[in-house]
Amino acid sequence: MAWLVLLVAGVFETVWAIGLKYTDGFTRLWPSIGTVIAMVVSVVLLGLAMKTLPVGTAYAVWTGIGTVGTVILGMVLFGEPVTLPRMICIGLIVSGIVGLKFFSTH
């Protein structure tokens, strides 16, 4: 269950990271409110997952999910470049996340 909570926390991290772009420096009310809510939900869920998962593993997986999700959505939503080196780097991050899950003692 903790891994599912951590996955959802990572998704909310992606949401707030992308939301930052839409806040226009926190000058737009509704995108700013949505982004702050996503931040709070993400950190609360991370804290819940850390009740049973190792802190280093949970934090690394959380940031990895957020990083991969944000990079992919940046490509899709904002036209950021899709290059082979970027895709290889995303693959390395994903392999690290999978490795941490696989080798976790929980």
UniProtKB/TrEMBL annotation:
Membrane topology reported for the UniProt record: Multi-pass membrane protein
InterPro entries assigned: EmrE-like, Small_drug/metabolite_transptr, Small_multidrug_res
Compartments reported by the entry: Cell membrane
Record's GO cellular component terms: plasma membrane
Pfam family, one: Multi_Drug_Res
UniProt keyword annotations, A-Z: Cell membrane, Membrane, Transmembrane, Transmembrane helix, Transport
GO molecular function: transmembrane transporter activity
GO biological process: xenobiotic detoxification by transmembrane export across the plasma membrane
PANTHER family assigned: GUANIDINIUM EXPORTER (PTHR30561:SF0), SMR FAMILY PROTON-DEPENDENT DRUG EFFLUX TRANSPORTER SUGE (PTHR30561)
Similarity annotation: Belongs to the drug/metabolite transporter (DMT) superfamily. Small multidrug resistance (SMR) (TC 2.A.7.1) family. Gdx/SugE subfamily.
Protein name (database record): Guanidinium exporter
